Amino acid sequence: MAHILIVEDEKSINDLIAMNLELVGHTSEQAYEGNEALEFLKHNTYSLIIMDIMLPGQDGFTLMKHVPENIPVIFLTAMGNLSDKVKGLNLGADDYIVKPFETIELLARIEAVLRRTNRSSKIFSLDSTVVNLESRVVTVNDSEIELTLREYELLEILINNINIALSREKLLKLAWEYDYFGETRTVDVHIQKLRKKLNWENRIKTVYKIGYRLEVDQ
């Protein structure tokens, strides 16, 4: 889908991001300090850069000046002051996320930036189902399938988080845009409808005591 550069000096965080990007179908390269990232930028092209600010060598703000204008950047940093956010965004960053962060939120922000910059694949295909993420047209065996707005929103969230278990509460918050107040049956009902309409009975897996996962072979 997208080729992403991760610039983060803390190896555990860098590796966590790389692992989750791979799970949802992206590829990545990992840099651990500013000068190393600059070398990557000289020889490679990326769909997106996820970058810390406090880095050995060149910091993220300085490195930002060397990033080509056509490559979107998400700052991922512990520097949460409003002045730092304003500075990062004024330098041209597309988003600014403060640590600690939730992986699901980071992946959602990544997909949002990729959509805005047209750097994410617009077509998702699995078995006999094809989803055009731009036109929102869904076909099964070349026949268009009608989905309600909530069914489609739920489908897109599953696609953007392939092979990741999502809780019912998280799906409610992302697809229905409200927090969990005790009733999650609506998620189960919509999942059952998606399974039937898309012939994904063996693709949308129930994760015991958690929620659901769209399972895709890597």
From TrEMBL:
Leader peptide range in chain numbering: none
GO CC annotation terms, alphabetical: cytosol; protein-DNA complex
Xref: Gene3D superfamilies: 3.40.50.2300, 6.10.250.690, Winged helix-like DNA-binding domain superfamily/Winged helix DNA-binding domain
One Pfam assignment: Response_reg
Cytoplasm among keywords: no
UniProt keyword annotations, A-Z: DNA-binding, Phosphoprotein, Transcription, Transcription regulation, Two-component regulatory system
Single GO molecular function: phosphorelay response regulator activity
DNA-binding region: 121-216
Positions of modified residues (4-aspartylphosphate): D52
SMART domains: REC, Trans_reg_C
InterPro entries in UniProt: CheY-like_superfamily, OmpR/PhoB-type_DNA-bd, Sig_transdc_resp-reg_receiver, WalR-like, WH-like_DNA-bd_sf
Span of domain Response regulatory: 3-114
GO annotation terms (biological process): regulation of DNA-templated transcription
Limits of the OmpR/PhoB-type domain: 121-216
Cited function: May play the central regulatory role in sporulation. It may be an element of the effector pathway responsible for the activation of sporulation genes in response to nutritional stress. Spo0A may act in concert with spo0H (a sigma factor) to control the expression of some genes that are critical to the sporulation process.
Protein name (record): Stage 0 sporulation protein A homolog
